[in-house]
Specification:
Low-confidence stretches: 37-77, 303-311, 368-376, 622-637
Structural class: mainly alpha
Number of strands: 0
Oligomer: single chain
Strand content: under 5%
């Protein structure tokens, strides 16, 4: 320690004493009385016994509360000073810098217009100005103006990109390899500065500047390789930053810029001669954003546990919306490129290839740890990949198949997914299976094949037979899983089994009904309008017979399997038969068929009544078998 140290200490102590004196004076002005100080000489003469002070002794100044009006006045003064400080030190500073930049730009334009500066000089001025702005920005960052510093860095980086691109594209001063390497160096430097200073704002500025450069220097010509190579560099840099920092917004910005550039270029310049190059770049862009969700880094506290991450909106977009949009746009891009070549046979295989790719992603291990401030939970990404794969498989069916094969494909897909859902205990797969089954059932009813001159052995009945078999499989699978623990799902396994049984019975009635209609109106009827009423009567009688026979079979199965669920279906079907016989058959059947219809219905109802009166299942006793839907499973084979 030097000889000047005691003097510095004395000076600091003197300043502290002066501040304490000013504080005491300010307190006295506002009515706060301090305890009188006793001189040192008086303390020496004072008696040794301590003086007892009354309870009303004022609080020492060190812990005296500050009046409210003092705080209000201080806060108002602070606000005034902060507003004045912002106007003078920040706003005027930025406006001044902007004015200088505009003035320099006008000066350079004047110099270029008058040929004072050649192409080489313009590029050098741009490089020097860009590097100077980046270096100058560090001075502002060190003084606490981080936001302004990042904006200067973004402007400087943009000027560097612009100068390098102009040196290659506009003035041909350097070869493509040199300009490309220099732009890679600028991008790498920006990425390093973002990572070093931990600034997402700077990264966003850099992304915007990088994607703005091709627009600023575009000369309206087709430069596919250089443009898309440049975009690849920006995307790879953005992906690396997303891996290192929780900046998922960069991913969305890079994806948006890439899509806009690719779409704009394709609409204006694409031709079949560029098919190979375009497919290569489209594949590269697609793969970058397909793997990116597995590498998104979450901020601290965003993940409560491995399976249920509490994501911010930015990470939600990166993990959910971005993969969906990337898959959809990637598929449409390949579909359009292949379609332009006339190879329509390849359309379904594109969807199959996409489905296989996302299924492969499910098998890949998570490359980085999860949870907390680490990378995104694989549960979210895996569920999304599985959904995308199933959607592409579902799309591939109508692209490849026609007519009844679309229906059969969706039904078989739904049954296979439901079997997988039971094995994996996955409510996501189960929901996708239900969606495929609904699509298949809708197609079965809406787009079935036309009528045929052959009974039963025709395309329509065969398609319905596949649907009946699929839903019978679904009913049995759901019944077997009814007592097993399952993932939370809006519809339970027993309800799924009950609905599947109802669909099976309805499909049997519809399929056989179509065959009855086909027999009487497309095989037997010759088109003679004089016998039309007669054949209509035959068809109505056959429908009544179908309802009664099928109801009797269901009732017999319900008693045999002790299933109240089947018995109730049979009773409802018999009630429909009663209504049809008494309302429709009375007015439309001839005397003979009317007698047969009523006698058959009466005999059936008497038999049913006898069975219930015998109470073979002890339905009236205390031990009711198969009440409600408990006996549903016994009706299944």
């Amino acid at each position: 320690m030097g000889t000047d140290a005691p003097r510095e200490f004395e000076q600091q102590i003197a300043e502290l004493r002066a501040r304490v004196t000013r504080l005491e004076a300010a307190l006295r002005e506002h009515g706060i009385v301090l305890e009188e100080e006793v001189p040192v000489a008086v303390q020496a003469e004072a008696p040794a016994t301590p003086e007892i002070k009354p309870a009303t002794t004022p609080m020492p100044a060190a812990i005296a509360p500050e009046p409210v009006f003092l705080k209000a006045a201080a806060s108002e003064a602070q606000e005034d000073r902060s507003l004045e400080s912002r106007i003078g030190s920040q706003w005027f500073n930025r406006i001044g810098i902007l004015a200088v930049l505009i003035g320099m730009a006008w000066f350079l334009k004047l110099a270029v217009d008058n040929h004072w500066i050649g192409p080489g000089g313009r590029v050098v001025i741009g490089l020097v100005a860009g590097a100077g702005l980046i270096a100058w920005s560090e001075r502002f960052r060190s003084r606490g103006f981080a936001g302004f510093s990042y904006s200067l860095k973004a402007v400087g980086s943009g000027i560097l990109y612009l100068s390098l691109w102009a040196a290659y594209e506009l003035f041909a001063l350097v070869p493509a390899a040199v300009a490309f390497a220099a732009m890679i160096a600028v991008t790498a430097f920006n990425g390093f500065m973002c990572w070093l200073q931990d600034s997402e704002l700077l990264a966003l500025y850099a992304i915007v500047g990088g994607f703005s450069t091709p627009l600023l220097v575009s000369n309206g010509e087709n430069h596919e390789v250089s443009l898309f190579s440049y975009l690849l560099v920006l995307n790879v840099a953005g992906l690396l930053l997303v891996v290192l920092r929780p900046w998922s917004r960069l991913l969305f910005g890079a994806f948006t810029g890439t899509v806009l550039f690719f779409l704009g270029w394709a609409l204006r310049f694409y031709s079949d001669a560029q098919f190979g190059r375009t497919v290569f770049f489209l594949s590269a862009f697609f793969l970058i954003f397909a793997f990116a969700p597995r590498l998104v880094r979450l901020a601290a506290g965003e993940a409560n546990n491995e399976n249920r991450p509490a994501l911010s909106w930015a990470n939600g977009i990166a993990l959910v919306l971005l993969p969906l949009v990337n898959a959809a746009l990637g598929f449409l891009g390949f579909y359009a490129l292949v379609g332009s070549t006339g190879a329509a046979w390849a359309d379904p295989w594109i969807a199959v290839a996409f489905a296989a790719f996302y299924l492969m992603l499910l098998r890949l291990p998570n490359p980085l740890p999860t949870g907390g401030a680490l990378h995104a939970s694989p549960a979210v990404v895996s569920a999304l990949h599985l959904t995308i794969a199933v959607v592409f498989l579902t799309i591939a069916i109508p692209l490849k198949a026609r007519g009844r094969w679309i229906t059969i494909g969706w039904l078989v897909e739904g049954a296979a997914l439901l079997w997988l859902a039971r094995r994996a205990v996955s409510r996501l797969v189960r929901g996708l299976a239900m969606l495929a089954l609904v699509l298949g059932l809708t197609a079965l009813i809406a787009i079935h094949p036309p009528a045929s001159t052959t009974i039963v052995f025709n395309q329509r009945f065969g398609t319905f037979a596949v649907g009946i078999a699929v839903f019978a499989f679904v009913a049995r699978l759901a019944y077997q899983a009814g007592d097993e623990p399952e993932a939370e799902f809006p519809v339970s396994w027993p309800v799924t089994a009950a609905v599947a049984v109802l669909i099976v019975n309805a499909l049997i009635l519809v399929a056989v009904g179509w065959e009855i209609h086909n027999y009487w109106w497309y095989i037997r009827y010759s088109g003679d309008w004089r016998v039309m009423h007669e054949y209509h009567m035959y068809a109505q009688f056959t429908y009544s017979a179908l309802f009664m026979v099928f109801g009797a079979i269901q009732l017999a199965l319900g008693f045999w399997r002790r299933s109240a669920f089947l018995r109730w279906q049979a009773l409802i079907l018999l009630a429909i038969s009663i209504g049809k016989v008494f309302i429709v058959d009375v007015s439309e059947l001839s005397q003979g068929y009317r007698i047969v219809s009523f006698l058959g219905l009466g005999a059936l109802l008497l038999a049913v009544s006898f069975v219930y009166q015998k109470d073979w299942l002890n339905l009236r006793g205390p031990n009711v078998h198969g009440s409600g839907m408990r006996g549903l499973g016994r009706s299944l084979p």
